[in-house]
Amino acid sequence: MRAHPAGPLHAGIAPPPATGPAPADLGALDPQVWPRSARRVDGELHLGGRSVTELAREHGTPLFVLDEGDFRGRAADFAGAFAGADVHYASKAFLCGQVARWVAEDGLHLDACSGNELALALAAGFPAPRIALHGNNKSLVELQLAVDAGIGHVVLDSFDEIDRLVPLASARVSAGGRPVPVLIRATVGIEAHTHEFIATAHEDQKFGFSLATGDALAAARRVCDSPALELAGLHSHIGSQIFDTAGFEAAAHRVVGLMGAIRDATGRVLPELNLGGGFGIAYLPEDDPVAPGDVAAKLRTIVAAECAELGLPVPRLAVEPGRAIAGPGTVTLYEIGTIKPVRLGASGAPGTPLVRNYVSVDGGMSDNIRTALYDAAYTCVLANRDSDAPPALCRVVGKHCETGDILVRDLWLPADVVPGDLLAVAATGAYCWSMASNYNYLLKPPVVAVRDGVATELVRRQTLSDVFALDAVLAHMPAPSPVIDQPAPELAAGTRS
Ligand code: LLP
Q: Same domain for 287 and 144?
């Protein structure tokens, strides 16, 4: 069981803080963790050639700052490493109209995992043939949208879904359209972890058709029996934030084996193989992600070897990176509101600080749920200035009415941080804005892209009026105060110089 987030005094014990010794330079920007354009200019953090103080003044805080060059550079790195294969950007990591356009312009494909992600991509002009639709419970409406739009692949996830799709696909074929291309998502029995993989029969989860029970083969037969469906290939996704390529290699081995079994059972040689996403990124300087080129080389080698063994032609490969494209290039800027030193207990181990500063910022678990949900580790720096003050043990927390509302569990910040300073949390581009909520009626922050000294708002800040509009009583009432409705940046930044 996880420790109570209330901390050591709760249980009357004083475990040492989970962070190592303070780094020599508390303001250092490790290039593995920070966006490619991150620099200190006269001590202040600059992103995409823009000062964070100016960005905060113009757009308010909390603020997602997305380094366009970083996002598109990483997309290009994957496209280059997987040349001859299809790279699908897993849009659940972060999607908005402009991102859909960049991904389309840069020649990638797109993975949507709901009808609304699909609808957004289509509305932004994303070419339908380059979209795949995922989901373990696609509704009739979602499937109809996919069929009508003519998307590249529906990734089948259950027998119910096949039953639901066949009549829609048959109607399209009867009307002179082509059969609907599908992939079968196979559960290959690999449980992938960040630093390890366990090749067990990890069947007890909701996605895909089990390879071990024969469901995946049965699904292939069912698809082959329907002239309105075209079985284009197989899909496998083993997890997320994975550093070790061994899990992908084991999955590739098993899924190619399934291709062989399908050929033997149905006579069909499948032309495509999608090995999913899950490539890890560095949230902390000590994290060690695998470069796209290395992943690509390993996957190509193992798929080629397995195919040779089974006498199969090598299929066209596809991968679906989300976090590895969107994650590292975005930083969340927060303004510090309060700082509270909290005693850690009198019996700390020698050398253990006895005080932790709770540094509260103006966002929290509503804009980054990952620390609370997955115990995710982040790092952050004092962003609006540098400091040579000694290190102080800190915990960066949000403003929600929840003890587990933690953004950065343990880190060292300069002891002279004060309310009004800006903090920048690194690597928040994936699964932060996209998982944001309105808990405690906090409003979703804007996303601003920076490039070559220019900042462009991609998504505006949600206003209280936006939220009131959903409420039967409040829909037509003005939000009580313009400050609460939409933080006026001059006011929000009032405590900063
Ligand atoms: N393909 C499929 C079928 C997926 O289910 C996912 C992620 C991806 C690709 C992209 O995985 P990535 O490359 O981004 O790791 N909310 C969690 C992550 C959930 C991932 C769900 N599926 C988090 O914040 O860590």
A: yes
Using the 3D structure, point to which of 300, 326, 352 is the last residue of a domain: 326
Task: Establish whether residue 378 lines the binding site of ligand 1, counting it when its CB lies within 6 angstroms of any ligand atom.
Answer: no
Query: What pLDDT does 491 receive?
Result: 46
* One domain for residues 301 and 391: no
Residue 323 and residue 171: Cα distance in Å, rounded?
A: 37
Give the type of residue at 7.
Answer: G
Is residue 468 within 6 Å of ligand 1 at its C-beta? no
**Do 300 and 375 fall into the same domain?**
no
322 & 384 share domain: no
For the CA of 279, the closest atom of ligand 1 is 13
**Pocket of ligand 1 contains residue 185 by CB under 6 Å:** no
Indicate if 401 belongs to the active site.
yes
Give the type of residue at 199. Answer: A
Among the three residues 326, 341, 371, which one is the final residue of a domain in this structure?
A: 326
Tell me the C-alpha distance between 61 and 336, whole Å. 10
First to last CA, the chain: 45
Dihedral of alpha carbons 410, 369, 207, 102, sign:
negative
What integer pLDDT is reported at residue 349 of this predicted model? Answer: 61
Q: If residue 312 lies in a helix (H) or strand (E), which one and from where to where? A: none
464 shares its domain with 349? yes
Question: Residue 46 belongs to what domain range?
Answer: 39-66+330-493
Whole-angstrom Cα Rg for the chain = 24
Q: Which of 34-38, 46-50, 187-191, 280-284 has the lowest mean pLDDT?
A: 187-191
